[in-house]
Input
Amino acid sequence: MSSNTKSSEQPMAKDFSSFLSLEGASRKKSPLKSLLRFMGGDMISLGGGLPHPSTFPFYSLSAEVKSMDPTLNAESATNNTKAASALGDLVTVPHGPQPGKIENLSASLQYGIGTGIKSLREFCKEHVNQMHRPQYQDWDVILSAGNTDAFAKTIAMLCSRGDKILVEEWTYPAALEMIDPLGVGHVPVKMDGEGMSAVALKDLLDNWGSTPEQANDTKPCVVYLIPTGQNPTGATMSIQRRRDIMQVAQEHNLILIEDDPYYYLQFFAGEDEQKDGQTNGTSENSQSGWVPSLLSMDTDGRVIRLDTFSKTLAPGCRVGYMSMNAHFCTIAQYHNEVTIQQPSGFSQALLAEMLISHWGQEGYTRYLFENVRTEYLKRSQHLQMCYNKYVVPQFASFIKPSAGMFIWIKVHVDQHPRYGTVSDSALMLEVFRSCVENNVLMVPGWQFSCKPKPADIDPSDVLNVWFDDQATYLRATFAYASFEQMEQAMARFGQSLSKTFAA
Ligand SMILES: Cc1ncc(COP(=O)(O)O)c(C=O)c1O
Output
């Protein structure tokens, strides 16, 4: 595969072959798939075992989707489900020949190569080009079945049993749960309100080998980051932080896995009227739009950027896309060919038709900017307003998020009358139990901890387990509950805290 957006002034990606795991280095193109390139034109194929499309019982695929026609009244389209439905566009993927460049339904439902269908992959690549302007020539894009799938493939490509990757000190638990059984370890890097600290990362790597735990480990060369609206802390890296991380990555020759599902859920400075407290992230992006990604700063081909439609369209689509150097892309393609093959043909067909024929690049970007982002901005503001109304500041605090779906609430256990006489974990467990009794659920902070879980704990026994004394946090999301429920939840949380702290 080669980039269709080459600029001869840009450098080529560096050679990162030496970073490949044995598995990554051994991946080969499937010989069966190699025959596909001869298909078309006058070729009569008696080759690949493709089922005959006449046996597909799907004559067409239709969905009513949000219209992004700029001439429609945006107000009524966003505010009211009924109105939006009346203003919806009917997207139909026909069985037979399609005018234009989009595959017809039988083509999308057929076996294909591991890159995903051409039209959707090209749409995603052009979107990446417009949003991130990669700064080297041979970057490319491949479709995935979402970031969970893309992360698993990335780890398989780069890591072997016994390797360790660097992660934010509070991180997405599924990432750790994915790598642990593979024997791939993780090393936490300190965070602040802007996510992973570049100073801490540099310090750790500059002094690698100086502690007994590190003595037998090779220096990690892969970093897993969630740079925007981080899960769980809500932190967003400032532009400067991103530059600093890139600098450390160049200095220590690192590969960065940029897992960025919340990228389009950014709240820009000035949009949030609340004046209190710090902001969890930067406001530098306010005038120029979206904060620059790590991919956009990468001149070497060392960033593997993972995007997903899960938070922008729907998680059930199970479609995402990976942007990275062409060599890594080819390996991911070979991996796809022997695992998922491609994301579901139904999803790809519908997304291609909606995004290309109905919305276009402009409509999709406008949808992200005007709809997805603003919905979560309103939700975030509402939860914060309710929090401020009901929670006594002495007992808990959070840093305002500037992206994502989460607030990361720090419980001030040191204000508890029994602080110091029992462990912080015991106090947090009391807070959590009280919340559950009071019918408000948040995720215990320890679930995002990088510390190894003691073998004798059953992590599913959440009412009796709190294993990390440092994890004096609860993660709350403003993504899902109704506005009324958010208010009720914060009222209950405030009561639970006050009750626990009175004990
Ligand atoms: C950081 C992070 N990565 C990946 C995912 C999963 O994404 P996907 O649905 O694309 O697999 C999530 C979802 O919560 C997430 O928070």
Summary: Residues 146-148, 172, 226, 231, 259, 261, 308, 310, 315, 320 surround pyridoxal-5'-phosphate (CB under 6 Å). The longest strand covers residues 60-65. Residues 345-390 form the longest helix (46 residues).
